[in-house]
Amino acid sequence: MKRCIFHVDVNSAFLSWSAVKKLKEDPSALDLRTIPSAVGGDVKTRHGIITAKSIPAGRMGVKTGEPVVKALAKCPDLVLIPSDFETYRAYSRAFIRILEKYAPVIEQVSIDEAYLDMTGTEHLFRKESAGGEPFPLCAARVIRDEIRTSLGFTVNVGISTNKLLAKMASDFEKPDRTHTLYPEEVPSKMWPLPIRDLHGCGGATAARLYSLGILTIGDAAAFDEELLKSVLGEAAGAYIHRSANGISTSPVRAERDRAKSYSNERTLAEDITEDNYEGRMPEILDYLSDKVSGRLKKDHVRAATIGVIVKTGSFHRHTRQVTLERAVNAKDPIERAARGLMEDLLKGPEGLFAAGETLRLVGLSASGLDDSPFEQMSLFDLLEEQGAAGAGEAGEKEEEMPFPFLSPLPSGTAASETPPEPSPPDPAPSPPSPQEERKQRLEDMMKKVRSRYGEDALRKGSGPEAPSGNV
User: Fold this and answer.
1) Residue 208 burial class via C-beta count within 10 angstroms: exposed 0-12, middle 13-18, buried 19 and up
2) Are residues 163 and 68 in the same domain?
3) Structure confidence by residue, pLDDT tens digits, 148-183
4) Would 415 be classed as within a structural domain?
5) Catalytic annotation present for 225
6) CATH number at residue 200
């Protein structure tokens, strides 16, 4: 059976959802979708980046992801509105519920787009297609109409036999349209497009392809695959060549693949410089660490590798990462690692600040994930806990003897009598070295473990044959 794959994409999602909410609250309000408008940045200071734009704003040259100041230079009358993520989540859930009525398998890939495997669902649309309208076009029309009527916003639907071509088709003319891009239509509909329009081809890759004389998707499709691999790398070169020829075998999955990493980024309303670093960076790393930690805990995983990302005022990205002794998901160790990485990246003679750079974006990542239900702790973690407990016990003892510096007088000595002359004190021992102190703490810890759990609780490991419970 021939596969039938839809890609359904909300037109200017954030802006559309804000516009719909505004019209519901005030039906006489101006529809933001009909004027040059955009969501993004700080509306008052007009800093930050554009996260969504209206189609009229797009015609004025405004682009998603560009700085607000640059967008305003292109379109001085651009209406800016703030983000409203609570509204976005509500409309996204309603959007997906409608799709679930029609497709047996849905893969939601972002808050505003999803793939639908419509293979074998022709019987659901027999009544609607009674006039001879082909099944896929009829199904797309029914879905678009229900979303527009019941939710108030529009979507584009791309139709093909694989996910790549369905995605490419949904990006054709907007809004509220259905487009097909079947394999036999690739030469006429896709090959003439600029190479940067190929799904998965980023700006840096496109620039390298331009240097080879590859200007269109058709140029990439006809280019020697081995030469592409030698320039872009094995995986990227193969992907560009296959995708340019419309080849994709990725199935529509009902559930997303398990995350391989977690990251959060924050675009700054005001650039971070060497002068304001100490005042602003701690708050940002606190916020990002809290977000990443929360996501790790929600998914019951821990991360062994922590990384930081910055984008400079010259729009270059820089990263640093470190692998910890053990995987964590608590905020404090994540923040400590991020703070050290940031210092290394930014400060010193080789740091970005020394090169005169400023920061417009800061991010934090966590990878090397461990989803084991058991968290490995070192003996020194336990020592720290024992140290804290010991401090508490000592405090309790001091309360029992409020004046521990008063020792009992020798037997037969009156309080008014002069006590005997004390003997000279022994020379004070030299303080133990850090290694000796650490060794002593470890021995104390081992004694406590054995006293509680038995002499066999701890043994020295003897290589691969050692019992799994040994330390």
Assistant:
1) middle
2) no
3) 999 999 999 999 999 999 999 999 999 999 999 999
4) no
5) no
6) 3.30.70.270
